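To illustrate the input format used throughout this study, we show a single complete record. The first block contains the structure-token representation of the backbone; no residue identities are included at this stage. The design step must infer an amino acid for every position from geometry alone.
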């Protein structure tokens, strides 16, 4: 099992308190002066690239963090940039193979264009070891360099204390400004904080915390939520938390079919998650007890193929009421898949959400990559656009949802578009977020990993949090403590969308 670098205590403090502490003026790097210091800045340069040419196709993640880099350069800091990129496999691939596929070289070219070759000193071939150390040693105050992909080393994703210690040896100060990875317990996110005495959240993380936590922990009510996407397993923790927090929760996407199946609706060949039927039932019971309006699709679009919309003759809209949909009389015929919410559902979701003064949306309502199956997702994007123009607070998180609203040209008026997928959801759940917690206990890791394994500062054994939480969740969804839905891992952060 992967080593966890989180301590038992810090892993269980209420996330609201962690967020409040991180937003304190003391931890604001804008009020610091790191002149001459070696500042290691964890950034999210996991940008999309053109497979054929290797060129960066969307540089917004790089552009977003440029003000942070510039701020540190203006303070005359020596800035060391580190990031993961793609999914190299150090156990299977040689360094040459990884270098050919997952080098940060294209990002280095972008940085040089943006910062100029006086300030930006290029890419070091490794993120730890003698090459990295030599490159850092040559860095002058007011200069920056980029270290090669952290995931070339197993120890980053594998949370190795040795890797974290080697990375920490390069710097005096650690600043994390990669919100997309703060739900990860990894060497360059949590591990490094054990060995660096000064750790700070960067301005981008502070902005996410301000926008998300303020607006969702104490929302202007009514609070409405639209949730979609493929898997209940990815999101049941956040649905459970939102059932406790929101006034209206509208669920679409493929995961809605598992909730419908849990209610006894027959859904044809649509893939459902059998293992989650019972937790879904408990969550729906809890919503009814609390008075949360949990809305499921009342009609859906079905198709004989998930990818071939041209089969128009076998596509239709099916109403989905318990009365008409039974295994004997399935509403969606066998061999057919539910691919989007239907027109009646779109109208209901829209009507209910437009009554809300705060709306959060995560996850497409259907298999929106196929244009014919995108109407439900576009309808939700349109609803948020309209609500924004009417003065509602609107927030969107999640790679695919953000891609959908951007592609529909409806992003302009949205109050906040979050850069996090899994991280945004964990923040709302109010649990997890080891990368945030770690920033509050810098330099406390004297013995981590010595003697092999997962000992922590308090001497306790630290477990793999997501696995533990998953087990808890299966045993009982809806603990009913405000934002206390259980945390689950989510792999969104690595998807380049
Ligand atoms: P986000 O990135 O916004 O958090 P997710 O990654 O959870 O969203 O889910 C997005 C995926 O869910 C998309 O690939 C989409 O095709 C898929 N999806 C949504 N509804 C369906 C459906 N009815 N059938 C198949 N796939 C679906
Ligand atoms: Mg996604």
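Output of the design step:
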């Amino acid at each position: 099992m992967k080593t966890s670098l989180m301590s038992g205590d810090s892993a269980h403090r209420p996330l609201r308190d962690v967020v409040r502490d991180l937003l304190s003026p003391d931890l604001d790097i804008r009020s610091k002066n790191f002149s001459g210091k070696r500042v290691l800045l964890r950034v999210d340069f996991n940008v999309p690239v053109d497979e054929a040419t290797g060129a960066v196709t969307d540089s917004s993640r790089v552009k977003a963090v440029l003000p942070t880099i510039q701020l540190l350069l203006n303070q005359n800091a020596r800035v060391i940039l580190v990031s993961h990129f793609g999914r190299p496999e150090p156990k299977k691939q040689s360094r040459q193979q990884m270098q050919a596929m997952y080098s940060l070289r294209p990002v280095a070219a972008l940085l040089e264009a943006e910062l100029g070759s006086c300030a930006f000193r290029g890419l070091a071939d490794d993120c730890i070891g003698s090459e990295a150390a030599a490159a850092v040693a040559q860095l002058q105050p007011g200069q920056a360099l980029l270290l090669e992909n952290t995931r070339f080393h197993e120890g980053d994703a594998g949370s190795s204390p040795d890797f974290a210690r080697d990375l920490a040896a390069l710097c005096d100060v650690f600043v994390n400004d990669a919100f997309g990875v703060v739900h990860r317990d990894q060497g360059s996110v949590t591990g490094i904080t054990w060995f660096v005495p000064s750790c700070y959240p960067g301005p981008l993380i502070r902005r996410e915390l301000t926008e998300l936590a303020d607006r969702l922990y104490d929302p202007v009510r009514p609070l409405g939520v639209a949730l979609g996407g493929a898997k209940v397993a990815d999101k049941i923790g956040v649905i459970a938390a939102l059932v406790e927090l929101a006034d209206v929760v509208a669920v679409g996407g493929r995961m809605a079919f598992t909730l419908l199946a849990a209610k006894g609706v027959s859904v044809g060949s649509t893939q459902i998650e059998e293992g989650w039927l019972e937790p879904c039932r408990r969550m729906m019971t809890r919503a009814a007890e609390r008075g949360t309006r949990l809305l499921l699709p009342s009609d859906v679009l079905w198709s004989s193929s998930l990818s071939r919309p041209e089969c128009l003759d076998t596509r239709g809209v099916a109403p989905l009421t318990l009365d008409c949909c039974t295994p004997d009389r399935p509403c969606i015929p066998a061999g057919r898949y539910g691919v989007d919410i239907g027109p009646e559902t779109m109208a209901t979701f829209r009507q209910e959400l437009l009554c809300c003064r705060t709306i959060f949306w995560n996850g497409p309502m259907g298999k929106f990559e196929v244009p014919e199956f995108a109407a439900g997702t576009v309808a939700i994007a349109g609803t948020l656009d309209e609500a924004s123009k009417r003065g509602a607070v609107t927030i969107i998180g999640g790679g695919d949802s953000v891609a959908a609203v951007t592609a529909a040209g409806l992003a302009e008026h949205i109050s906040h578009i979050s850069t996090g997928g899994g991280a945004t959801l964990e923040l709302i759940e109010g649990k997890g977020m080891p990368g945030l917690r770690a920033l509050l206990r810098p330099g406390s890791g004297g013995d981590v990993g010595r003697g092999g394994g997962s000992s922590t500062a308090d001497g306790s054994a630290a477990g793999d949090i997501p696995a533990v939480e998953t087990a808890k969740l299966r045993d009982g969804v809806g603990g009913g403590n405000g934002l206390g839905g259980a945390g689950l891992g989510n792999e969104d952060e690595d998807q380049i969308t």
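Structural context for interpreting the output: The first strand starts at residue 38 and ends at 42. The first helix runs from residue 8 to 12.
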